[in-house]
Give the backbone structure.
Amino acid sequence: MAFPVHRMRRLRASTGLRNLVRETRLSPANLVYPLFVCPGKGVRKAIGSMPGVFNLSVDEAVKEAEAARSLGIPAIILFGLPESKDEQASGAWIDDGIVQQATRAIKREVKDLLVIGDVCLCEYMSHGHCGVVKRSASGESAGKKSGAAAAAAKDAEYEIVNDASLEILAKTSVSLAKAGIDIIAPSDMMDGRVAAIRAALDDSGNQNHADSFLRC
């Protein structure tokens, strides 16, 4: 039915009516609080590009998690800033990685808080990409050229190795689950990573760990 028979304002006439029929409710219970964890102690370093957001050492991250829980926020998501980087992203999957340390500390000190782990390799790779990098066939050919020909082929020298990257993403997810992460949230761009992560979690006895999508 159309106006004037159907008048939508009837259902917006009072606070009680609006509360009864509204479809969307936003409260602290709907939020996930991101924390960026770095090495050190007592570190609370402002991130210039994100006012009010900080790189936090593990002890400071615990305090922040406690504050979030006291406000009714049920979950946090951890992003790691490793002490060093390499071409295998080892800081992402070693047992004493920065996110693993933070997870154990937060789980020990803050009860009933869900901890989500971002899974991507770019922050842990020395080259900054979210996967293993190798020299491409065209790059190898360019290396044999000289002058203008080599310069023209320079942009095509390297490529991401998708399947080798999946192995590291899966290893990282298992390590995070072992540390106590509740939800694995892959944010990389590798094809097949959700299936690879799910299989690795299941094979390692973590069938009940949830996986989710997170897009950067």
The CA atoms of residues 37 and 57 lie 6 Å apart. The mean pLDDT is 89.
